[in-house]
Amino acid sequence: MGAATGAAVPYVWKEALNVDKKKLPNAMYLILALAMVLIAIPRLELGAGGTLSTVFGLIWIGFALLVIAANLYTLLGVNEETRQQLDRIRLAKRRMWQLKLERGFRRSKAKG
């Protein structure tokens, strides 16, 4: 049946794997960052008190968590509504400038 319809992958998986092409790099970076953290945490010396290796490990984990959080923020589309509002504002400003330019052009054409 799957070969006859050309559906080798179930529909549910197709929808789950349907990632926006703009967000695909963020998904890859997130997976890489998670893999790096999972590999690095057992190797970091975090229980050695206030030594330089402990400070480095904590700062490294902090930066890795920052990268993970940034990619999750982008993938989840938290700022999508804000981006849409800014796009509407930009469009309104463009229209205002276009009207001003057209009025100026008409005035200069009427004088000349």
Compile the SSE list and pairings.
Blueprint: H1 2-5, H2 11-17, H3 24-40, H4 52-76, H5 80-111
Helix pairs in contact: 3-4
Helix content: over 70%
Principal-axis shape equals elongated
Q: Uncertain runs with pLDDT below 50, 5 residues or more?
A: none
Whole-number mean pLDDT: 82
Summarize the main sheet: none
The N- and C-terminal alpha carbons lie at a distance of: 75 Å
Q: Please tell me how large the radius of gyration is.
A: 26 Å
Integer count of domains: 2
Overview of this protein structure:
With 112 residues, the protein is an all-alpha fold. It folds into 2 domains: 21-77; 79-112. Helix content is 76%, strand content 0%. It has 5 helices and no strands. The longest helix is centred in the C-terminal third of the chain and has 32 residues, at 80-111. The chain is elongated. The model has no long low-confidence stretch (mean pLDDT 82).
